[in-house]
From TrEMBL:
Biased composition (Low complexity): 1002-1012, 1024-1040
GO molecular function, one term: GTPase activator activity
Rab-GAP TBC domain: residues covered: 490-677
PANTHER family: PROTEIN VASCULAR ASSOCIATED DEATH 1, CHLOROPLASTIC, TBC1 DOMAIN FAMILY MEMBER 8B
Disordered: region residues: 987-1040
The gene coding this protein: tbc1d8b
UniProt domain EF-hand: residue ranges: 861-896
Any single GO CC term annotated in Swiss-Prot or TrEMBL for this entry: cytosol
Record protein name field: TBC1 domain family member 8B
UniProt KW keywords: Calcium, Cytoplasm, GTPase activation, Metal-binding, Repeat
Record's subcellular location: Cytoplasm, Cytosol
Source organism (scientific name): Gouania willdenowi (Blunt-snouted clingfish)
Pfam families in UniProt: GRAM (PF02893), RabGAP-TBC (PF00566)
Amino acid sequence: MWLKPEEILLKNAFQLWLTEKDNEYFILQRRRGYGEGGGGLTGLLVGTLDTVLDNTSKVAPYRILHRTPDSQIYWSIACGVTKEEIFQHWDWLQQNIMKTLSVFDSSEDITSFVQGKIRGLIAEESKTSLVLEDDPEKFREALLRFEKWFELPSEEKLVTYYSCSYWKGKVPCQGWLYLSTNFLCFYSYLLGSEVKLVIPWDEIWRLEKTSNVILTESIHVLAHGEDFYFSMFLHLNETFVIMEQLADYSIKRLFDKEAFQREPALSDPLQITKRGLEAHAKSDQFRGFFRLPKEENLLEVHECFLWVPFSHYNILGKICLSENYLCFASQDGSQCHVIIPMREVVNIEKPDSTNKALTVCVRGKRALRFSEVRDYMRLSNTIRSRCGISASPQHSASSETIRGECQSLINHFEDNPEDVTLMVGQKDSSKAVSTEALMTVFHPQDVENLDPKMLKEKMKEQSWNIHFSEYGRGTSMFFTRKTRDLIVRGVPEALRGELWMFFSGAVNDMATHPGYYTELVEQSLGTSTLATDEIERDLHRSLPEHPAFQSDTGISALRRVLTAYAYRNPKIGYCQAMNILTSVLLLYAKEEEAFWLLVAVCERMLPDYFNRRIIGALVDQAVFEDLIRENLPQLVEHMTDLTFFSSVSLSWFLTLFISVLPIESAVNVVDCFFYDGIKAILQLGLAVLDYNMEALICCNDDAEAVTILNKFFDSVTNKDSPLPPTVQQAPVSNNVKASHGCVDISELIREAYEKYGSIRTEEVESSRKRNKLYVIQTLEDTTKQNVIRVVSQDVRFTSPQLDELYILFKRQHFLSCYWTMKSPVLLHHDPSLAYLEQYQLGFQQFGILFSLLEPWAFCSPKSTLSLWVFRLIDENQDGLVNFKEFCCALDTLYTGSFTNKLKFLFKMHLPPGRGKVDLQAYLKQWQNEILKKEETIKDLPRINQSQFVQFTKTLYNIFHGDPEEERLYRAVAHVTSLLLRMEEVGRRLQEPSSPSDSKKPANASSAAVMEESSSEEVCKTPESADAPTPRSSSSSQDAASDLSETEWSFSFEQVLASLLNEPVVVGFFEKPVDIHMKLGQAKVAQLKTKANK
C-alpha cells in the first residue's frame, strides 16, 4: 500500500527494522520479529508496539523508504503485509521511477518528484473506495490493519475504528475495535498474548452501555452466550451509537428485510460509511419527532430564534429543513414546535440583514419570523426554490397582486369549507367511498340538547377554538405544553378526527397523494386473497355493539379501508387487531382520512406491529418490562417473573387499549397516542398497574391477577362522554362498582402524565433498539429449537451437534447475503414460512459448506460430488436445500452403515427424478409418506455404463489421500473387472443361441480393456478424474465401444455384494468420523473459505 510521504529520522530511531534490499534512492526493510528469524523477546516487544501504536508504517512488517542522498532524513512511501505485496511496489519503483531520477540535478528535485508521484498514486486509488471517508489517509492505514489481522473477504466494508480496551476476565487488553458492515472485530497483542474477536452483528443478543465499580463506563456485548466488555473509549457515546446503528442495520437487512426495503439510503452494504449512518440516524430522528413521511430526509439545520406571538417573545431553537417541510423545534423540544409544509408557503419576505431574519408567510393569514439565522440569505433562497417562489426583481412589483389573489382564495375556502379538497388537488371521490365520519351519521349532535354532558362538550370545543385562535389551526399549528394539557382533558367529539389527522401527520400523506385512496379502492375491488378472506371473517367482530357496525354502511366502509390497505402493503396485508383499530378511526374520521390514519399507525407510529411475528409489539412489551423495573419496584419484588405482564399487555399495545376499555373511554387513550406516540400507552400501562398495585401484590397466581385487571378495566368510565347509551358499551355491574368504584378515564390519564410524564421519547427509542436485538434473537432461537426438535427424530446427531450444525448452516445462508442486496438466498428468506423453510442454501452456498463438513478430504466447493449430493437431496428440485435435507445427508455419510453409505453414493449417480409433480403424483407421494414405506435396495433402478464409470471415478476421488490409497484403488479395479465378467456371463445365459466365434474375443477383450481402464484410474489425480463428462479417458471409451451392441448395467445388489468382499473398502467406509473435530474446523474455516474464493 502506498503511503503519504512522511519524514523518518533513522539515526535516533530504535533498531526495529532490518534492510532486505536497497539502492541509491530506495530501501526495502523488514520489521524485526517477522519473517525469518522472527519470534523471541524481540518479536514479543515489536508485536506489542505494533498493536498499541496508531501508525500503519510501524505496524506493517515490510516498508519502503525513499532516501535523500547525503542526509539522515528518510521518507516512508509504502508498506506491505506480505513479501509479495512489497516486492510488487519495489519492482514498480525500479521500472517506472529509477530511470527518471537520473535526469534531476538536485536532491530536492528528486524528493519532490518522488513525493508527487506517490501522492498521485494514492489519489488515484482513493477516487473510488475512500472518497466518502473523513480522513482517507488514516482510513487507508486502518484498512490495512483490518485486512491483515482478520483476513475477512475483500468485499467487507470497514466503517470506522476506535482505540479501546477489551476486558478478558479482570484483565484489560488494550487494542483496536473495528466496526465493519457485518462484523464487530477487536485485535490486541501484548507481550505474546494475542486476542482476536470477530462477532457478526446478526449474532448479537444485547448491546448496551453499562457501568460498575471497576468499569465506570463500558459497552457490553452479548453474543454466543458470552459477555464482552469494551471500555476506555475516547468517544464512548459516539462509538455506541455507531455500533447500535450497525446492529440495527444488520437486523433489518437480514431478518426484517421487508421493512428495510423502504430505506434505500442503506440498500448497498458496500457503500455504508460512518457519515452515511450518522445522516440516516438524524433523518430518522427528525421524521419521528415531526411525524413526517418516510421519504423526507434532514437536509439542513440552522440555529435561530422564532418569534412566538402567543408568548410575545423570541424562543431559541433550530430550523430543520427537508425536501418538502420546514420545521422548527425549541431547544428542549417540548416547549414548542411547528411544522410548515412547503405547499403551504405563499411568500418569503425580503430578509432583514440587521437581525439576520427572514419571514415565512403561510396560508391562513399567518407569518413566522425567524431571527439570528447565521446563513439567512442562503436559507431564504433555498426555501424560495423549494416553494417555487421567484426572487427576481421583475416579479417584486407584482407581489402585492399575487398576495391579493392568494388572500381571496383563502377567503373562498374559509367561506366554503366543502371545497377545501381542491386546495390539494384531490380528484372527485368515488360515490362508493363514504365522505362522512360514521359518528356524525349514527350519532349527530343535538344542538338544542343542553344537558350537563353536552354543555361540558361545548366548553371543550370553546377551549380548543381559543387555542386555535392563539396557536393556529391546521398543518402549521404550534404544538405546545398547553396543547398536551387540552389533550389530557379530552378532545371534543366534533374535533377528534381533524386533530388525529394533524397530530399523526396523516394530513400530509393525504395532501401529497390526491386521489390515491379512490384508485386503491377501485383496483382492490373484487380481489380475492388470503388477506381479503381474513378481512371478511373479522368484519362483524369489529365493535359489534356499535350501531355503525350493525349496518351495511359501516361494514362496507371498514371492508374498503382494510382491503385497500392490504392491496397497498401486501407484505403486511391484514393482521388481527387492525379491524378493531380501523373501526374506531372510521367513527371519527372520513373514510379516506381513516385510511391514511391507518397508514400512519402501521408504517410509522407502530412499526412492525402488524405482521405475522408482531415484532414491534414484542419489543414494546420488553420496553414496558424495563419501565416496570424502574418505576414499580414493589411490584417487581413480589412478581420476579415479569413475563406475565408481557402476555396480559399484548392486547393493550396492539389495540391501544380499545379491546379492554369501553369505547367511550378508549378514544381518550387514542387521543393521547396520536399526540405522544407509544409513550402515552406505556405511561397509561404503568398507571394501571400502579392503581392496582396492592391487589396485584396479594395475588396467588396469574389467573387472579388477570381477573383483577379485567374488573378494573370494566370499571373505567368517561363521565364527560356525550354519547347516548346505545353507542356506549354495557354499563358496569353493581358488583364491579362495589369492588372498584368507577374510575374516570380523564383522571387516570392525568395521573399517568403526572407520575410518568418524565419518560422521554428518546429513552423509549433507545430502549426499543436495545430490546429489538434480544426479541429478534429470541424468536430466532425458538425457530432453531423447533427445527432441531423436528430434525433430531430422523438423524443420529446429538442435540449439541445439531445446534452447531444449525449455526453453521444459518451463517452460510447469511454469508451469501452479507455483501449484496440481490442475493437469491436473501430473496427466498421469509420469516412467515415454516421453520424448516426459513433458511435454505443454494448450490454455491451448499458446495462451500459441504466441502467443510464432508467426511473425506478431497471435496472442493466446485467439485462434481457437491453437485450430485445437492441434486440428490434437493427432492423438489427448486434449487434450494433446507436444514433437514442437509442433516439427513450428513448423517448418512457420518454415521450410516456401509450399505447406507454405498446406497447414497449409488443414488447420486442415478438421473434426477421429476421436480414439480402433478396432483395425482403428489397424492400418491403423500399416501406413501403416511404408510412410511421404507425404500429397500431392491427398489433402486439399475445403473448404466456411463453412470457406473462415473461411480468408480467418485470412489477413486474419495480414496485419494488415504494411507491405504493404493490398496483401495486396486480393490475398486478388481470389483470393476469382476462385475464386467458377471455381466458377460449373465448376457451369454440370456442369449437364445450360442454366440459366434468371432464375437467371443471381442467380449473377452472388453472386460480386459475395462479392467485396464480401471487400473489407469489409480494413477490419475482427483482433479483429472473429476471432470463432469462420464467418459473422460480413451480407455473407457474403447471399452464402451467394444460393448456397443448392447448396453450393460448393474443393480445395486451386485455392486454391494462385490464390494463387501473387499475388507479394505468396507473398513474405509466404516471408519468412525470425529464429528466434534469436523464441526470445530468448519467453524474456524467458514469465513476464510469465503475469503479465499
